[in-house]
Amino acid sequence: QKTRGHGQAPVNIALSKYWGKRDKALNLPINGSVSISLPGLGTETTLSITENDRDIIRLNGTTLEPEATFAKRLSQFLNWFRADQTTAFSVDTSNSVPTAAGLASSASGYAALVLALNDLFDWQLPKESLSLLARFGSGSASRSLFDGFAVWHKGHQNDGMDSFAEPLATLWPELTIGLVKVDTREKPVGSTVGMQQTVDTCDLYKAWPEQAERELKTIVDAIQKKDFTLVGKTAEHNALSMHATMIATWPPIVYWQPESVAAMRMVWALREQGIEVYFTMDAGPNLKLLLQEKDQTAVKKAFGERDIQIDFIQPFE
Ligand code: DP6
Fold first, then answer.
1. Where are the alpha helices (DSSP H) in the chain?
2. Closest ligand 1 atom, CA of 12?
3. What is the value of ipTM here, to two decimals?
4. Can you give the residue ranges of the Mvd1 C-terminal domain (predicted)?
5. What is the pLDDT, as a whole number, of residue 100?
6. CB within 6 Å of ligand 1 — which residues?
7. Ligand 1 pocket test: which of 36, 76, 191, 286 has the largest number of ligand atoms within 8 Å of its C-beta?
């Protein structure tokens, strides 16, 4: 056996969202989702077995207190992989610093960790199986095993063996992602808690599972046809619908800041001018834009004039 395992994985942005679990222990989603990975932004993890009596977890070069939320969640995940009670791991994990933050690092984090475990224990498992394992750490991590587009199937089985992600073969070099930085502070309600409160208290949520599955299919078909307009408008509508369920939750969950709404209005104004740009948003105030490479200069200029920071990423470069 190797003494050290290594893994690296990108962050991903959902074009149709995962929101709601049908099984909290197994992290099984109520609906499927589709995402795009962002190369160059993500997590790198090294892992080994230590003689220490408990896990040692380093995040971005700093050793965490075992009681820290991040460390506790990670150790709990590692419980699935200990030979016995006495096995302890030493984990060294770093996120590549996103200039425009607000990107889920739990997704790339658990995907990189599972790749490191696969390397350490020499499992030689296919990516789809590793996706299933990453799902236990964080649902969205199931999609971070792949470059490009990935579809996470909700699955039907109670044991979750059919709930994992698979890549889509489509390459789309013109597709560009814009990261609009509104606020990089930690979100007030994490997605795990947020989606549970939504499932428990939001009447509007009853319409979500069917809409989400329908929009997932629309987006996958549109990706395969490279129908940018259909991908963009379906993704934007899907994100706004998810946020509508968050707002209609009790207590209400509102991730938007005034600047988020200002940025949305910018996107809509650009579309009025014939520049085709769409947005999506996750459990935070930042926007992620979908555009085509030819419109990058116009979009940069429009946001620049309002002093809003934006970074561009070409997922297929
Ligand atoms: C809004 O994957 O972070 O970003 O499974 O509880 O770890 P857990 O939740 P998480 O939720 C992501 C929610 C989202 C939408 C998405 O990425 O699909």
1. 69-78, 105-120, 127-137, 191-201, 208-225, 228-247, 258-272, 296-305
2. 17
3. 0.99
4. 182-301
5. 42
6. 14, 17-19, 27, 33, 104, 106, 138-140, 191-192, 282-283
7. 191
